[in-house]
Amino acid sequence: MPEPPQTAVPGLLRLADWLDADACAALLARIDAGPWSAELRRRVQHYGHRYDYGRRTVAAAGAATAPPLPGWALDLAGRLAAEGLMPGPAEQVIVNEYRPGQGISAHVDCVPCFGPVVASLSLGSACVMDFTEPETGRKVPVPLAPGSLTVLAGPARHVWRHAIAARRSDPGPGGRVPRGRRVSVTFRTLADRRP
């Protein structure tokens, strides 16, 4: 496999066309056949383990549970592990739907909850994700194209905050680029909880 492109954010890997257009369309159809939750301002699907947004933790056993990873998620989790992009198969998958004008505030995925690598696949519309280094405030805009995979490890996973501005278009090389419906599929392992 060729060396993946690095970015200005240490530990951030971007792989364009990780899925081709036909595979993206087929995956989006399978995702849309699943149950969506409207618990947030955006629609979501949780698999494997439910993330509790209020407590900022993975829901405890016996709490609101999530269905097991469906076949499409198991296949992609296996591919991520086989390609050495994640340390093992993902145990938790969250699907987020973003309509034009929707975003997500700056955050670091829960460090005590999830493992050292987080991978996210973009489907549907393109958008720009902003990465911010807390110490300096330096911001790095990262375009996310349909079919691209973004892998966060090291400082990109544990230090830099990432966000998607709530807007209807993004800056592009030739002017503003309108957003359409975007779906992200994020793969995570659980943090090691041994004493």
Name the overall outline: globular
Strand content: 35-45%
- Describe the sheet with the most strands: 6 strands, antiparallel
Average pLDDT, rounded to a whole number, is 91
Q: What does the radius of gyration come to?
A: 16 Å
From the 3D coordinates, which CATH architecture would you assign? Sandwich
Number of domains: 1
Q: Order of strands across the widest beta sheet?
A: 1-10-7-14-5-2
Could you state the CATH homologous superfamily?
A: Alpha-ketoglutarate-dependent dioxygenase AlkB-like
CATH topology: Jelly Rolls
Structural class: alpha+beta
Low-confidence stretches: none
CATH domain class name: Mainly Beta
SSE pattern: EHEEEHEEEEEEHEEEE
The proportion of residues forming helix, as a percent range, comes to 10-25%
Distance between the termini: 37 Å
Layout of helices and strands:
Elements: E1 12-15, H1 21-32, E2 44-47, E3 51-52, E4 57-58, H2 71-82, E5 92-98, E6 104-107, E7 114-124, E8 127-132, E9 139-144, E10 149-152, H3 154-158, E11 161-164, E12 169-172, E13 175-178, E14 182-190
Antiparallel strand pairs: 1-10, 2-5, 3-4, 5-14, 6-11, 7-10, 7-14, 8-9, 8-11, 12-13
